[in-house]
Design brief:
The complex is a heterodimer of chains A (112) and B (114).
Chain A (H helix, E strand, L loop, with lengths): L3 E3 L4 E4 L4 E7 L4 E9 L6 E6 L3 E5 L2 E6 L4 E6 L8 E9 L5 E4 L3 E6 L1
Parallel strand pairs in A: 2-11
Antiparallel strand pairs in A: 1-3, 3-8, 4-5, 4-9, 6-7, 7-8, 9-10, 9-11
Chain B lengths: L3 E4 L2 E4 L5 E7 L5 E8 L3 E10 L2 E4 L6 E7 L2 E6 L8 E8 L9 E2 L3 E5 L1
Parallel strand pairs in B: 2-11
Antiparallel strand pairs in B: 1-3, 3-8, 4-5, 4-9, 5-6, 7-8, 9-10, 9-11
Classes of the chains: A mainly beta (112), B mainly beta (114).
Chain lengths: 112, 114
């Protein structure tokens, strides 16, 4: 059973602060990991992908992967009100034909 | 123009009707997917296709069928719509190349079955 779990939130942070979003997954045979941002009623938008242990930075976003502990996190620095959205974690398992399994998402609100 | 398009964007239909949702892409990707999204349940995979001749069931395929008419087109059909198929439906694509498994989503179709 492949499971991807996220804290549903809501998570509230003040503008300019760091938002930290976490995701755990159930199977060590995973291959790659993705963070999507979804505004209400809109489609998921890819923010970050990470394939190997460690940190990956892209602008204000940093993804952190720890395969031994089976978690992946997303840090958003200098949070802006426009970052207010639901953040979806997705995990790709190669032994399931590279299917994506999504968490139910964490709702983030950035307070001006 | 958007790389992944879906038609229609909104649809209201009655129980028992057959309905088709269409997806087209200009990304040149081989792999295409259909998901539905329900509040509190996240995105769930209905069907996926790795090429025109390769179609696979996902987690929740009952009540749905698909057709991959071309590399760029993947359609989802509800043979006899029922109210619990009311949801937001997304098409997605990916290249499937090693080290490049990212999926890119279309704008979605909001389907209401009354």
């Amino acid at each position: 059973q492949k499971e991807v779990e996220q804290n549903s939130g809501p998570l509230s942070v003040p503008e300019g602060a760091i938002a930290s979003l976490n995701c755990t997954y159930s199977d060590r045979g995973s291959q790659s990991f993705f963070w999507y941002r979804q505004y209400s009623g809109k489609s998921p938008e890819l923010i970050m992908s990470i394939y190997s242990n460690g940190d990956k930075e892209d602008g204000r976003f940093t993804a952190q992967l720890n395969k031994a502990s089976q978690y992946v996190s997303l840090l958003i620095r200098d949070s802006q009100p426009s970052d207010s959205a639901t953040y979806l974690c997705a995990v790709n398992w190669v032994n399931t034909g590279n299917q994506f399994y999504f968490g139910t998402g964490t709702s983030l609100t950035v307070i001006p | 123009d958007a790389d992944v398009t879906q038609t229609p964007r909104n649809r209201i239909t009655k129980t028992g009707k057959r309905i088709m949702l269409e997806c087209s892409q200009t990304k040149g990707h081989d792999r295409m997917y259909w998901y539905r999204q329900d509040p509190g349940l996240g995105l769930r995979l209905i069907y996926y296709s790795f090429d025109v001749k390769d179609i696979n069931k996902g987690e929740i395929s009952d009540g749905y069928s698909v057709s991959r008419q071309a590399q760029a087109k993947f359609s989802l059909s509800l043979e006899s719509a029922i109210p619990n198929q009311t949801a937001l439906y997304f098409c997605a694509t990916s290249s499937g190349r090693a080290g490049s498994y990212e999926q890119y989503f279309g704008p979605g179709t909001r389907l209401t079955v009354t």
